[in-house]
Amino acid sequence: xxxxxxxxxxxxxxxxxxxxxxxxxxxxxxxxxxxxxxxxxxxxxxxxxxxxxxxxxxxxxxxxxxxxxxxxxxxxxxxxxxxxxxxxxxxxxxxxxxxxxxxxxxxxxxxxxxxxxxxxxxxxxxxxxxxxxxxxxxxxxxxxxxxxxxxxxxxxxxxxxxxxxxxxxxxxxxxxxxxxxxxxxxxxxxxxxxxxxxxxxxxxxxxxxxxxxxxxxxxxxxxxxxxxxxxxxxxxxxxxxxxxxxxxxxxxxxxxxxxxxxxxxxxxxxxxxxxxxxxxxxxxxxxxxxxxxxxxxxxxxxxxxxxxxxxxxxxxxxxxxxxxxxx
Length: 327
Prior knowledge:
Layout: H1 5-16, H2 31-34, H3 41-63, E1 81-95, H4 97-100, E2 111-112, E3 114-131, E4 134-135, E5 140-141, E6 143-152, E7 156-158, E8 161-165, E9 169-180, E10 188-206, E11 212-233, E12 236-257, E13 260-263, E14 267-285, E15 288-298, E16 307-308, E17 316-326
Parallel strand pairs: 2-16
Antiparallel strand pairs: 1-3, 1-17, 3-6, 4-5, 6-9, 7-8, 8-10, 9-10, 10-11, 11-12, 12-13, 12-14, 14-15, 15-17
C-alpha cells in the first residue's frame, strides 16, 4: 500500500511534537485523516484539546490528596492499622459542544464553551504498620506503612458530554515513611508515594446537530508523592501537605460530523503538577474519627490550541470527607 509523503511527514511530526505545543496537531492537517479540504480538521483538533483538558482534571481526583486521610506520620509498626471510607469530589469543567456546535472545516483556534459538572469518586482505604521506626530518644524515626485502597468511579454526564468507565472499581496502592513520629511536643512528619489508575473509559461530546467527538480506550495512570506535617490537639487534629502529582494518559480520538468521519492514531499526554492540601479531623471515639480535607493542584504543563475558560492549566480545587477507624 502506497503511503503519501504528506501522510508520512504528518505521522513523523506527530510523534516528534508533544501535545503540549500550541499548534495544530499534524494529524488534523493531513487529508488522509481529516479528508480532502480538511473538513474534519476542526473536529480532530477540538477532540485532542478536549482530551487534554479533561485528563488534567481527572488526574486531580485520582492522584491528589493525603494517602491516609487525617494522618501525617506513619502508624508506628505492626499490627497497628487505619481504615477509612471517604468521598472526593470536584467541579469538573467539561466542553459544552451544544453551546456553539462542532463546525466542519480546517482547525481554527477559538474559545470553546465549557460547563460545570460535579464529579466524585468513592474510596475504601486501608493502611497497615510494617515497621515501628527507630527510637532516638526525642521521637521514633523511619516507621513504614503499606497502603491499599478500593475506588469506585461512577462516571459522569452533562449536556452533550458523558464519561463511561469500562468498570466501576479499581485499586490503588502506596507506602508512607514516618520521618518523625508525633509526640506530645513534636509534630508528626511523613513522606508518601501513591499509585492510582483510572479504569479504561469512553468519552462522548456531541452537539444538537448530531455531530460528535469520541475518545475511546482512554487510559490514565497517576502517581503522587507528598510530605505531610501534623499535630493532635486533644480530639482535634490538623495537618498540611505538599507534593507533586503526575500522570500519563493515552486514548483514540474520532469524530462524526457533517461531511467527515474520521479517526486518528492514539494520542498521549503527560504532566506533573504541584499539590497542597490541609486536613481537619475530630476524634469522635478512641478508634473513630471524622476528617475534612481541602486541596488544590496547579501548574499543569499541558497547553491547547483552542482555549477554554477556565484555562487548561488553571488551578483545580477538590474536597474530601471521610470517616476513619483504627489507631
